[in-house]
């Protein structure tokens, strides 16, 4: 990592002091992001509450261009999050820390229709996240990203962001832990995964639905096979069958069908 200059360190110290003083105050998210920006330029930020077996809740956002707000905020937080690799990783027990999208995404994610729709078409190239524990059932996620018109985070910037994680976690815990709402009790037996698994239930077998969902998330035949402990050839057979049953011939058409289903729910 490149050496932090005296000026940068001075700006960071002043900004993080202001963020510390703003804990428990509505100014806190602004001051926290301002502190991060003293060391790494960040275009857009989303902060969400991730509660186990619950849909994520938007806590704060800044820097999102107006023409992308519909896709990023309303569509994502309605049900688009069901395919998001970070949301799925948190649901599966991702530990607190700093992560780049490439560290948690499936192998074919960057060619998936989800990536094209919710990242590229929404003005983003990449995400990196702070995942911060509030309790055993709740986490705060701080998503940082730069848009298509800016330079993606380089290795030095990612290293800086990773180094800041202990302080970011400390401040976030002080601010949000006392404000943590009591999550509503989900219906008996309900899980986030169950809501997703409803797609295709009328036409597909359980195994075909499992394969379908892995393909939608950006898994290749090989990684789908690893997830389900079956052969890639069997995955391809299930893919062919589910395409036929759903009347589609490509992942793009399958994704469009899924989005239509989300919109109808």
TrEMBL record:
<keyword id="KW-0804">Transcription</keyword>
<keyword id="KW-0805">Transcription regulation</keyword>
<feature type="domain" description="HTH luxR-type">
    <location>
        <begin position="197"/>
        <end position="262"/>
    </location>
</feature>
<protein>
    <submittedName>
        <fullName>Helix-turn-helix transcriptional regulator</fullName>
    </submittedName>
</protein>
<dbReference type="Pfam" id="PF00196">
    <property type="entry name" value="GerE"/>
</dbReference>
<dbReference type="InterPro" id="IPR016032">
    <property type="entry name" value="Sig_transdc_resp-reg_C-effctor"/>
</dbReference>
<dbReference type="GO" id="GO:0003677">
    <property type="term" value="F:DNA binding"/>
</dbReference>
<keyword id="KW-0238">DNA-binding</keyword>
<dbReference type="InterPro" id="IPR036388">
    <property type="entry name" value="WH-like_DNA-bd_sf"/>
</dbReference>
<dbReference type="InterPro" id="IPR000792">
    <property type="entry name" value="Tscrpt_reg_LuxR_C"/>
</dbReference>
